[in-house]
Amino acid sequence: MKKRKISKAEKTFYAIALGFIVIGLVLAIFGIIGDHLNVPAADNWIISVEDALMTGLKIPFDLRVWGTIFLFVGVTIGLIDLLKYAKKEDVEADKALRRAQRLGQ
Questions:
Q1: Could you say which DSSP state residue 64 is in?
Q2: Rounded to an integer, what distance in angstroms lies between the CA atom of residue 99 and that of residue 83?
Q3: How many CB atoms lie within 10 A of CB 69?
Q4: What is the pLDDT of residue 105?
Q5: Helices assigned H by DSSP within the chain
Q6: How buried is 68 (Cβ within 10 angstroms: 0-12 exposed, 13-18 middle, 19+ buried)?
Q7: Average pLDDT per block of 10 residues along the chain, 105 residues long
Q8: Do residues 10 and 81 lie in contact, with contact meaning Cβ atoms separated by under 8 Å?
Q9: Angle formed by the axes of helices 63-104 and 45-57, nearest 10°
Q10: Per-residue pLDDT at 32
Q11: What torsion, rounded to 10 degrees, do the Cα atoms 89, 93, 94, 96 define?
Q12: pLDDT in the model for residue 37
């Protein structure tokens, strides 16, 4: 099997998906740490940031929910990219196979 060259667009989409996944993991981890941090609520900067985010956006999602949303978006982008370029590679392989069979007969 020959090695295929990865296009710049495919690399870009993978990088965007990876960025969403990393942001989602960081948000989810900070949400878990903020809930279980053993300090008074007034000194817990993670919870205060979470509360400011909830009041600022007027959406009642904590950091774990935002992390899950970002993870889902990143995985979805990566999966769509993977499926798109896998199908493109399959079509090209089928074309080459048909061409080889036509020329071989």
A1: H
A2: 24
A3: 15
A4: 61
A5: 8-36, 45-57, 63-104
A6: middle
A7: 79 95 96 89 87 90 94 96 84 79 77
A8: yes
A9: 80
A10: 93
A11: 140
A12: 86
- Dihedral angle at the C-alpha atoms of 27, 32, 38, 39, nearest 10 degrees? 30
Residue 89 structure tokens:
């590679």
Q: Which residues contact 98 (CB under 8 A, 6 or more apart)?
A: none
What is the residue type of 47? I
Tokens of 44: 């817990």
Instruction: Please give the Cα distance from 5 to 7 (Å, whole number).
Output: 6
Residue ranges per domain, the chain?
22-104
Instruction: State pTM to two decimals.
Output: 0.80
